[in-house]
Design brief:
With 413 residues, this protein is an alpha/beta fold. It has 15 helices and 19 strands. Strand 7, helix 5 and strand 8 form a beta-alpha-beta unit.
Amino acid sequence: MRLCTIDGMSIRILHVLALNSVGGVERLFADYLRDTRQPRFEHHVLVAHERIHPVLRKAVRANARSVHHAKYVGALKLPRLPAFLRERHVRSAVRRVEPDIVVLYNHFAPTRHLVPSDLTVSGAPILYYEQGACWGPKDPDRATEFLGAMAGVVADSRAARRMLELRWGLPRDVASICHNGVRLPAPPAELLSRRLPEGRPVRLGFAGRFAPIKGAVLAVHALARMHGSNGAFELHLAGTGPEEANLKTAARRLGVEERVRFWGLVQDMRRFYSEIDLLLCPSVREPFGNVCIEAAFYGCPAVATAVDGLAESVLDGRTGRLVPGTLPVEEYAALGSGTGGLPEVVYDPASDSLSRPLAPQPEALREAILELCADSRAYTEMSQHAHQRAREEFGMAIYVERLEREFLAVAGC
């Protein structure tokens, strides 16, 4: 391990994470690499899973000094067995980089080829960055051993820190909190004082992976329950995923197919946030809720589940509305959703405790939507508050500065 405290010497950071999909964790990392301005940092990447997704590849390769793959040697994919092949390959990559710190992103108690002893073969300390992985099922003994091997822990929300503490025994307040940042172009002036639309339907939006934990089918059911309410509503969905067929089936069965628009995978979210009036985030589990902050930056209030970190990304009554989860998983599935990937427990911010996963009732989503749309002046004020908070508390420059303080602390520089 090099001594990074020597004057003029750069600090080598080895970032270890999966980049084969385009989710919040992956987009945020690519945005960080684009926006970091710390001249002392030299960034290297160890890709923990499959190849880098094409959407992210350019940003990662353009802004990292080197890129390595845990499962590949050139074009050759190493077999899973015997395990020592991948372990030896990872150790070799770490030795070549000779990092001052290793940052392990969202691989809580990771797989065999990413055990801490392999990542610290050069003697560098590991900073673990929790962004939702600790909600999954894990071996308690292995989790304890894993956390004990970390030189530092940073969580993307208070909810993530409390999950580590309440479920996995991390001592209280050991982990730091670094809320995610937003990297989007400035919204046009007209979006900074939004008004409810006249002469067209209110556009409800959903953005995220179409997976059971995201609750997109509940947005379709909420739309269907708008029948007979004042004003017309549409639902716009940005994303892809395994639940897409279920969503289309639900829209057809509920008779709202003509009022539901699927945008597919959207690379530039500016247009989407500019065109919707209200974001729906009816997640069963959500460590933080990047999408709510992004929508808020464009002056778009959110209706979200009062679970996990959503109570941090949405301020109830000020930047949107929070709806409690009361729908058991069995009833949620009966509405047309799958149940794969749902967590065993979630964090309840109201009671500061762990609880079983519950989804919001479509009727409750409907009532929150109608309440937000009942008063145009109040809607405009909420839109302004949402944008102001997103700009002042979650700007990308603020995020980069917070995160890099964590890097420097672990590096001892």
